[in-house]
């Protein structure tokens, strides 16, 4: 004879699993929606921003390596530019431009909001 605690474990699992599944599903979908909205908002702000050019110096570069569970991945490149005023701005670089810039390079930075448009080294 076993001790009966008054509830069925399978019944508890079959009640909680759909609830937990929906919570995880909503969190995953919500994360995708938030990221998509954030990216579209940044794209819109960049498009509404004026195209600017200013003297700047490359003061730092960095790379962000990422991988996916399916074996794919890549690298995102960033450069920090310092303006003559002392202000700094980090911009994401297109792959084609990442290898063309070196720390200490001085020149004309072209950008629109947070979007890197180009850099003319002097």
Please indicate the count of domains: 2
Specify Rg, calculated over alpha carbons.
25 Å
Going across the major beta sheet, what is the strand order? 3-2-1-4-5
Fraction of residues in H or I helices: 25-40%
Going by helix content, strand content and strand pairing, the class is alpha+beta
Q: What portion of the residues fall into strands of 2 or more residues?
A: 35-45%
What does this entry look like structurally?
The protein has 122 residues and is of the alpha+beta class. The chain has two domains: 7-48; 51-121, OB fold (Dihydrolipoamide Acetyltransferase, E2P), CATH 2.40.50. Helices cover 36% and strands 39% of the residues. It has two helices and five strands. The chain has helices at 9-48, 95-98; strands spanning 51-67, 73-83, 88-93, 106-112, 115-121. A hairpin with a 5-residue loop joins strand 1 (51-67) and strand 2 (73-83). The longest helix is centred in the first third of the chain and has 40 residues, at 9-48. The protein is elongated, with a radius of gyration of 25 Å. It starts with 8 loop residues before the first helix and ends with a strand.
């Amino acid at each position: 004879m076993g001790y009966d605690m008054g509830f069925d474990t399978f019944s508890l699992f079959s009640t909680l699993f759909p609830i937990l599944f929906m919570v995880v599903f909503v969190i995953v979908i919500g994360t995708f929606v938030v990221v998509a909205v954030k990216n579209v908002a940044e794209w819109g702000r960049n498009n509404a921003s004026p195209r600017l050019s200013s003297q700047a110096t490359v003061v730092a570069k960095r790379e962000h390596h990422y991988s996916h569970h399916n074996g794919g991945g890549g690298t995102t490149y960033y450069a920090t530019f310092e303006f003559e005023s002392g202000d700094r701005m980090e911009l994401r670089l297109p792959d084609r431009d990442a290898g063309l810039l070196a720390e200490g390079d001085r020149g004309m930075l072209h950008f629109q909001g947070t979007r890197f448009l180009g850099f003319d080294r002097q």
